[in-house]
Amino acid sequence: MKKIINWILVFAGCFTAQAVSAQVRPPLSVDVNYSIAQPLGSLKDYSDKTSFRGWSAGLQYMLNNQWSVGLRSGYQDFYEKLPRAVYPDKQGDVSAVQTRTLQVIPIQATVSYAFTKPESAVIPYATVGVGAASMNYEKYWGEFVEKNNSWQFLVSPEIGINVPFGKASPLMFNANVRYNYAPYKYNDITNFNSVQGNIGLKFHLN
Amino acid sequence: MKKTLFLFSAAAAVVAMVSFSSCRKDPLKDMTNEESRIYITNHDSTANFKAYSTFSIVDSVAVLTLAGDSAKKALTDYDKKLIASVTAAMQQKGYTLVSKNAKPDLGINLTRIDNSYSAISWNPGWWGGWGYWDPGYWGYPGGGWYWPSYYTVYRVNEKQVAIDAFDLKNPKNSKFVAVWNSLWRGSGVWNIDNIDSMVQASFAQSPYLTNK
To answer: Which residues of A touch B206 (CB under 8 A)?
Structure first.
């Protein structure tokens, strides 16, 4: 009899443990990050300055302890003002103080894979975001602007960590590094390349 | 729990709103008048500027306004200084000033344009005609010239100044061909204090324009 009770307790314990493990956090989460982006390649030639004006935000749904899918957006503003210079143009020479800007607004679907169990103190993960980005190109010649706005394909692989505030806390600190690529071509830009560092919070909604 | 959630959502909403409204660094904010100006120079690449030795310059400045295609001539302090400054720059480049009756090789027209009416889009065609300078002044109607056409005027009010140099020696089909042109756009181009620096910049970026 005692044996049977013991076995039942063991089984019950296991089931409970499993149930708890599956429910460390509710599956739906929202994240908001502050972003810093470094332009690379031709984007760097166009606008050399690191952008400290950016953010990223998204929703994620955990399919299981490892895999999540989601949707995210964000914003990044690239800006560089150059001292007065003479630029040879198609039909002449233009002396101007150029202010070169690009605003990027991505909308991406994401797939993420967590490398550890949800109850870990630190949860490293990898994400790939695929979608489109609104590229708003504005090059100012003095106070005169040359503008172009278009949507481009954007792919963004990312690695990062989530650090829960306490073992089963629904709130986590998030830090990640993301690479962005878009086959965007306009004037001086032959491809859009940037490396983006993000820090923020991720919260699992009850 | 619900309270935390509410607070978090509120914080996220605030962050998003602040980001949307102030993330963009505005290029026009804190832009000085000097920085706002652009100087566009064009020239006839087939022209041999060493073949010219004399020039003459108009005795007043044509002013184009909303009023219509007919230009008024003006001789304000600004205009006097503009004539003197362009004359000095031409002499520095090795050209000799002569009167317009002494058969100068180059004729120089000066025009101020008040384009304030043309709200957003700039229509070079309007200015491209030769109604703005009395054709009889040089004995012939003027010729054609070139400048970039794809700039968008961002501000509603715009004043411009143009310097046009014409070849008076070799008229084609009884028209003078513009061999050099400088167009000033931006804030403060009608300000007398900026004339010298704008003239200097225009000639400095045109190294081919010399008799030396």
So the answer is: 93
If one counts every other C-beta atom within 10 angstroms of the C-beta of residue A170, the result is 20
Nearest CA in chain B to A53: B23
Q: What share of chain A is helix, strand, coil (3-state, %, to 5)?
A: 15, 65, 25
B contact residues 172-211, partner A, Cβ 8 Å cutoff = 181, 185-187, 201-202, 205-206
Is A80 part of the contact surface with chain B (CB cutoff 8 Å)? no
Q: Hey, which residues does A131 pair with through a beta bridge?
A: A108, A154
B162 or A62: which carries more pLDDT confidence? A62
Domains belonging to chain A, first-starting first, are 26-204 (2.40.160.20)
- Low-confidence stretches of chain B (pLDDT < 70) are 1-22, 65-71, 115-157, 173-175
Q: Say whether B152 and A81 touch across the interface (CB within 8 A).
A: no
Residues 6+ positions from A18 with CB-CB distance below 8 Å? none
- What's the pLDDT tens digit per position in A76-100? 999 999 999 999 876 678 899 999 9
CA distance B101 to chain A (A): 31
Taking CB atoms and an 8 Å cut-off, how many pairs form between chains A and B? Answer: 115
ipTM of the complex: 0.76
Q: Structure pTM?
A: 0.80
